[in-house]
Amino acid sequence: MGHRSGREPNLVTSRRSVALGFLSLAGLALAAAPPALAGDRSVSSRDVRGVLELFTSQSCRECRPAGAVVGRLGTAPDIVVLAYHVDYWDYTGWRDKLADRRNTARQKAYAKRLKLGALVTPQVVVNGRQALGGADERALAQAMAETPLGSAQAAGEIRMRTQGDALHIRASATGGEAGRSPPILVLVTYSERVETVVPGAMPAGRTLIDHFPVRDWRILGSVDGAPIELEMPLSLLVGDGDGRTGLAALLQAVGADNKPGPILAAAALEF
């Protein structure tokens, strides 16, 4: 049985302060950006039908089958898979080098909104609307069909394109409920595949393979009324020598308590 944690959720950093700080840094670095990392490309959220967010840990044995399942699903061009490694397994003695406390905070926020109780790993949140155990590929496919992107009240669209070393994102939202917070635009940086050799400790000498582990995620701003358009240098987002890197943009509804709600649209590029 997966690990459980009864700790209460923490509120994530203010979305506006994160967006302003990041965009200021992006503006300063744009002039010094190196040549393009790849040919110019463009993608749209119209081509994505599902987002699977796996909450996992390298120390969790039951997480490995779930990681393999979402890894297979993530090879489909219309599915975005993001593996958030949590830090509450570190007490076992092996510190997951991919873990981040902010990933744990995101899982806690989902648990509170979806009324899931204690945290469990592995856990897959489907399109921000339903949580499953993660190792049943058929159940995940069924959940994506039953809980599509968007919601009964709102929908949205994201367009991502590269031009030289610049990444351009355009996001728009329609609908929504009066008095509710506008949806937020989240940018997630992830690796396609990471191998980790575990020396000595459990599991001794093994090479762990993780698919689509999240390296960083940040809230770029709110999408309220008119579409928003952002530009930032790829050199700040895509590192050298770490294998293939992905950038996923999520347009996500939020509740009055700022907890993450249904994902309205998503798009992703890999380099």
Automatic annotation (TrEMBL):
Keyword terms, alphabetized: Signal
Lineage: Bacteria, Pseudomonadati, Pseudomonadota, Alphaproteobacteria, Hyphomicrobiales
Superkingdom to which the source organism belongs: Bacteria
Protein name in UniProt: DUF1223 domain-containing protein
Presence of the UniProt keyword Transmembrane in the record: no
Signal peptide (UniProt feature, chain positions): 1-31
A Pfam family: DUF1223
